């Protein structure tokens, strides 16, 4: 991939992250991530929804996250070049919608 295409891909990922961020309202500070066991059992059912929200992540990456919020946050932060706080906010919003 040439440098221009790579820059375009990075810019598109950042723009996508900003669009997701705009949709997310501030979450209650008392939010607690579900336990790994709570998510792990149903995670395969939620991979499709996660793929819609974070299209830059592959199905394999999402499956390997196994519903673990911290793994998902790290993947999103890295792929979309956003702050950890923003990635946490996005994951909190996503998990809230699953309830």
Structure report:
Residues 37-89 form the CsbD-like domain. Belongs to the UPF0337 (CsbD) family. The protein has helices at 3-23, 36-40, 43-53, 59-65, 69-80, 84-98. Mean pLDDT is 79; it is low at 22-28. The protein has one domain. The chain has 99 residues and is mostly helical.
In DSSP terms, counting alpha (H) and pi (I) runs of 4 or more, how many helices? 6
Radius of gyration: 14 Å
> How is the main sheet built?
none
Domain count: the total is 1
Strand content: under 5%
Overall residue-averaged pLDDT value: 79
Family: Belongs to the UPF0337 (CsbD) family.
InterPro entries: CsbD, UPF0337_stress_rsp, YjbJ_sf
Provide a concise account of the structure shown.
The protein has 99 residues and is mostly helical.
Give the topology, please.
Layout: H1 3-23, H2 36-40, H3 43-53, H4 59-65, H5 69-80, H6 84-98
Helix pairs in contact: 5-6
Describe this protein with a few key phrases.
99 residues, mainly alpha, 72% helix, UPF0337_stress_rsp, YjbJ_sf, CsbD
